[in-house]
From TrEMBL:
<protein>
    <recommendedName>
        <fullName>Glycolipid transfer protein domain-containing protein</fullName>
    </recommendedName>
</protein>
<dbReference type="InterPro" id="IPR036497">
    <property type="entry name" value="GLTP_sf"/>
</dbReference>
<dbReference type="GO" id="GO:1902388">
    <property type="term" value="F:ceramide 1-phosphate transfer activity"/>
</dbReference>
<dbReference type="GO" id="GO:0005829">
    <property type="term" value="C:cytosol"/>
</dbReference>
<feature type="domain" description="Glycolipid transfer protein">
    <location>
        <begin position="21"/>
        <end position="159"/>
    </location>
</feature>
<dbReference type="GO" id="GO:1902387">
    <property type="term" value="F:ceramide 1-phosphate binding"/>
</dbReference>
<dbReference type="InterPro" id="IPR014830">
    <property type="entry name" value="Glycolipid_transfer_prot_dom"/>
</dbReference>
<keyword id="KW-0813">Transport</keyword>
<dbReference type="Pfam" id="PF08718">
    <property type="entry name" value="GLTP"/>
</dbReference>
<dbReference type="GO" id="GO:0016020">
    <property type="term" value="C:membrane"/>
</dbReference>
Length: 205
């Protein structure tokens, strides 16, 4: 095995061309976010994991049945517009919202070496997903934020090799995580604009 960021696809490695965001590569990187939340080992994040997995499945199902028409996220949205039920379009919207939450939280953690994860994830939630949630769901997320692991424990897990190999130096971890975040930010900014222009929904970011 290897340290966490070496076991998942980085958003920095997702192809983004004039034609759009490569769908399969994007989904692979999004699955890495699911693994990231599982790394937190926080049962309170189960609804987040379930939501991410469910929306990844919706987009992947569309790709599997309409691969040529869904090679990029933009193509997928365009080709599903004529259909009465736009399951993948809605699933992708919620997936992007969940990724925006993740980005905001981890970006806050990277920007301030002293901030604890509970505070970083709370600020990320308030800037993104909170707007769309009812009172009950807000309570679930509030519980999850409070149950975040300590910052040091989380970063130690990111740097460690479960197989007992050498730990990644913190400087290298920061470089890789920042590249991961920059790649995700690029995709989120692009897709937020696409959703607004096509009037497919809103992605707060």
């Amino acid at each position: 095995m290897a340290p966490f960021l070496e076991t998942v696809k980085s958003f920095a490695d997702v192809d983004v061309t004039e034609d759009g965001v490569n769908t399969l590569a994007f989904l692979e990187a999004a699955e890495g976010v699911v693994k990231l939340f599982k790394l937190l080992e926080n049962p309170a994040f189960a609804p987040v994991v379930s939501d991410l997995e469910g929306n990844i499945t919706k987009v992947r199902t569309r790709y599997n049945t309409h691969s040529t028409q869904s090679a990029t996220l933009e193509l997928l949205l365009f080709n599903e517009r004529s259909e009465k039920k736009q399951t993948a379009t809605e699933g992708l919207m919620w997936l992007l919202r969940g990724l925006a939450f993740t980005y905001k939280a981890l970006h806050a953690a990277q920007a301030d070496a002293k901030v604890e994860l509970s505070k970083a994830f709370t600020s990320g939630y308030e800037a993104t997903l909170k707007h769309y949630h009812n009172f009950v769901v807000k309570g679930v997320f509030a519980l999850a934020m409070k149950a975040c692991p300590y910052r040091k424990n989380f970063y130690d897990k990111l740097a460690s090799d479960p197989a007992g190999g050498p730990e990644v130096p913190r400087e290298k971890l920061d470089v890789e995580l920042n590249k991961w975040l920059a790649g995700l930010e690029k995709i989120l900014q692009r897709m937020k604009k696409v959703y607004e222009e096509k009037k497919c929904g809103e992605v707060r970011f």
